[in-house]
User: What shape does this take?
Amino acid sequence: MTLEFRCSAVGVTDCKSVTKADSAEELLGKVAAHARDVHEVELNQTLINYALTTVKEV
Ligand SMILES: [Zn+2]
Assistant: This one.
């Protein structure tokens, strides 16, 4: 199972980043690092929950 998250799915339309991982925990870790490094956003629980609603299984 591979999970995929796209910044564009949460409204960051100028970011073409696609993050993939084998588990939700791994995915969230990568997304959190990307959000911090690229968007200077610290994920809180609300953002995590929202992000998870957009995650697709690929
Ligand atoms: Zn991004």
Remarks:
- The beta strands are 3-6, 18-21, 56-57.
- The chain has a mean pLDDT of 97.
- Residues 3-57 form one domain.
